[in-house]
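Lab notebook page, bench 4
Experiment: in silico fold of construct C2
Operator: M.H.
Input chain length: 317 residues
Purpose: comparison with the prior construct
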Amino acid sequence: MTTIDIDISTNINAIKLDSCIMNASGIFCSTEKELKNLMKDNYSGAVVTKSCTIKKRNGNPIPRCFQWKTGSINSVGLANLGIDFYLSFLEKQHLQKPIFLSLSGSSFEETYVLLQKTNPYSDFISAIELNLSCPNILGEKTLLGYDFHNMPYFFDKLFNLYNNPVGIKLPPYFNEYDIEKISSILNKYPVYFVTCVNSLPNGLFINVETETIVIRPNKGFGGIGGIGIKPFALSNVRQFYNYLRKDIPVIGCGGIKNGKDIFEHILCGASAVQIGTQFLIEGITVFHRLLFELIELLKNKNYFSLKEFQGNLKQIK
């Protein structure tokens, strides 16, 4: 992929990625055209699909997404073409690069159905990214990722029924106790990876000129992404890296705008990163730019691979 002698490849357990950078589920990964563009891109290491549901969803009413120079707010509401479309698409691709199929059930029971539908297609899917963290489903009172009480029962059944690689995409947690608690749950199961974080829930952005909210659903409240959430994302990445079993890789997501941001995620312990808001702002060329910036940074620091600094965040003496 590159002639520069910097190794930016990584592994998510047994999945080899030529680049540590991939798209985040939700941005330009819903349609056949968008997914093919990601498949053909030489600078992203994997493709993550839109979080899919059992049936096609039109999502929340528009306008439901708004972006500014450094951030975004959205309440898309899991608009997707339904799992049958994504399974049919992936069957035709023959794993041109690693593919993470994102699933999002509105309940634990629906999630089981989604997983069962993927079984005949396991040869075409590198891993499932189970989204327990979408904050934008109207009428849902609790994110599954915050349901600590029922989560062990859910995972008991899940891993008894399903033997293929499953990773978990988590919402942001804002205190160490919650991260330690969910890590203690995840450590009991064959979790393949953890992705953190999804967008920060219940943000609000205002248009001062019109004195209005900028998105229609949920009275203007939505998930916040962009560089403003990076400190929260880094905190989650670092703490999960510390609390999870060492054989559960962490994929960092949140606030990545440049190569330095990627370096920070990996320094905190991430094995790979996902790009959301900046992909929305910049388009498919973002992966080339980010990869170039990361390589230049590593050259300046005299690092030749990610393993040389991954997780090596230092304390102040």
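Observations: The chain has nine helices and 16 strands. The longest helix spans residues 286-300.
Next step: discuss at group meeting.
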